[in-house]
Amino acid sequence: MVETSFPVSGDAGVGSFEPADVQPADFRRLPSQLLDELRGLGGLSATASDVLDELGLSLAIPAELLPLRTAPAVVVGQALTVRYLPERRASSHPQLRKSPSRLAHHSVFAIGRPGDVVVVEVAGSADVSVLGGMAAEKASSLGIAGCIVDGGIRDLEQIRTLGLPVWSRRVTPKTGKWRVEAVAINRPVACGGIQVQAGDLVIADETGVCVIPVDAAEAAVERILQVGRQELEQLSGRSPAPAS
Question: In sequence order, what are the residues at sequence separation of 6 or more whose Cβ sits closer than 8 angstroms to the Cβ of residue 11?
């Protein structure tokens, strides 16, 4: 039997790995008032998708690719990104578990701000989890608005209890410890077939996920709000007059 320094079970020391390529969250911050206004709109991702079409941007992810895994929620926030690749060593490698796993959720949470959204690419290993109950606890405690995981998650009941909005490709009990390794934080990632960069505006609800490049975000948000107001006016115009 191979002697190991780090057991598979438990979460002690897990998630604090820092890959060689870590970029600060120094992107331009969008006005909080605009983001607050967005959260109050109904049909948000659908309107955002239409505005992306107007801008000639293909940055909408349908919900069937990244199903909502918690109670219905609307998430609006700027992206922090983390990319995982498959671990090159097999789980039978004699040295593998003598070093900590290379999961990096705590590292990415720590460099963000309350209201940020963590977007995760798990390239080639969608059948393992990179976010579970303990990671969700930490994200919630730091004010992370939600997580979009193009890969697997687990501990669904804990995540639901916390109320942390999470979208994922799969749910699996299989841990990503020693099976994947973080290679970059706040570099571009592929999520649901689109490119996401740190600082991009993420809009997510039950219908799907939309991403707006930070340089186009303020104009796009103004257009989304304009459309939302127009739709409310249309609905109000069709409503019957109140009884006298």
Answer: 132, 134
What gap in Å lies between CA 174 and CA 164, rounded to an integer? 21
* Helix, strand or coil, per DSSP, at residue 129: strand
Query: What's the rounded Cα separation, in Å, for the pair 159 and 59?
Result: 27
Per residue in 177-236, pLDDT tens? 999 999 999 999 999 999 999 999 999 999 999 999 999 999 999 999 999 889 888 888
Collect all residues with Cβ–Cβ distance below 8 Å to 167 and sequence separation of at least 6.
Answer: 63, 66, 67, 68, 69, 146, 147, 148, 149, 204, 209
Radius of gyration of the chain (CA): 20
- What the chain holds in terms of domains, given with CATH numbers, is 21-234 (3.50.30.40)
For residue 179, give every residue at least 6 positions away whose Cβ sits within 8 Å of its Cβ, in sequence order, or none. Answer: 86, 87, 91, 125, 128
Which residues, including other chains, have CB under 8 Å from residue 119's CB and lie 6 or more apart? 79, 80, 81, 82, 147, 148, 150, 189, 191, 196, 202
How far is CA 93 from each of CA 4, 6, 22, 157, 240, rounded to the nearest angstrom? 11, 14, 27, 33, 71
DSSP string covering 67-108: -B-SSS--EEEEEEEEEEEE-SS-TT-TTGGGS--B--HHHH
Token pair, residue 76, equals 């609006």
Phi first, then psi: what are they for 82, rounded to 5°? -145, 140
Q: How many CA atoms lie within 13 A of 174 on its CB side?
A: 11
Q: What is the pTM of this model?
A: 0.91
100 residue type, one letter: P
